[in-house]
């Protein structure tokens, strides 16, 4: 499910100057608070199963801030977030997985050619 969300996010989101991230947990996430909301926006993502265990972090400008979330209505978890022009760094926490949406700049420089669909030999046939 996590990989599906990751691939869906790659398709739906335009490239940004900053690196978007997804935070997933092994429990329900609620009561999101951001120390400086001019640096990042955080949106909960609702899955088909309505698990409420995924957050989307969208950087707005460079800087450092903190993000707090309530896990399973009993444990407060805090993340340190640093937004740089080419990456967003989110601290790790037990029971959480953090991964970036935008590929690193060196991966964007690689190019590749796609094969033509079956039955198509050239343009104009």
Folded structure, characterized:
There is one protein chain. By secondary structure, this protein is mainly beta. Helices cover 13% and strands 39% of the residues. The chain is built from 2 helices and 8 strands, in the order H-E-E-E-E-E-E-E-E-H. It has a 4-stranded antiparallel β-sheet, with no helix packed on it. A 4-stranded antiparallel β-sheet has the order 2-5-6-7, with no helix packed on it. Strand 5 and strand 6 (75-83) form a beta hairpin. It is globular, with a radius of gyration of 18 Å. The chain starts with a helix and ends in a 16-residue tail after the last helix. Mean pLDDT is 81; it is low at 10-16.
Low-confidence parts, pLDDT < 50 over ≥5 residues?
Answer: 10-16
Task: Assign an overall shape.
Answer: globular
Number of helices: 2
- End-to-end C-alpha gap: 40 Å
How much is the average pLDDT?
Answer: 81
Gyration radius, rounded:
18 Å
The count of β-strands is 8
Fraction of helical residues: 10-25%
Topology order in helix (H) and strand (E) letters: HEEEEEEEEH
Q: Strand fraction band?
A: 35-45%
Q: Main beta sheet: strand number and arrangement? A: 4 strands, antiparallel
The oligomerization state is single chain
Strand order of the largest sheet: 3-4-1-8
Structural class: mainly beta
């Amino acid at each position: 499910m996590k990989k599906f969300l990751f691939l869906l996010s790659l398709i739906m989101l335009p490239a940004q100057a900053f690196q978007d991230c997804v935070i997933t947990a092994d429990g329900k996430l609620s009561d999101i608070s951001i120390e400086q909301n001019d640096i990042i926006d955080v949106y909960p993502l609702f899955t088909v199963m309505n698990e409420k265990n995924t957050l989307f972090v969208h950087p707005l400008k460079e800087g450092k801030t903190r993000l707090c979330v309530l896990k399973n209505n009993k444990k407060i978890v805090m993340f340190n977030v640093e937004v740089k022009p080419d990456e967003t760094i989110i601290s790790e926490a037990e029971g959480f997985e953090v991964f970036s949406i935008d590929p690193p700049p060196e991966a964007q420089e690689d190019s590749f050619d796609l094969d033509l669909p079956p039955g198509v030999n050239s343009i104009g046939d």
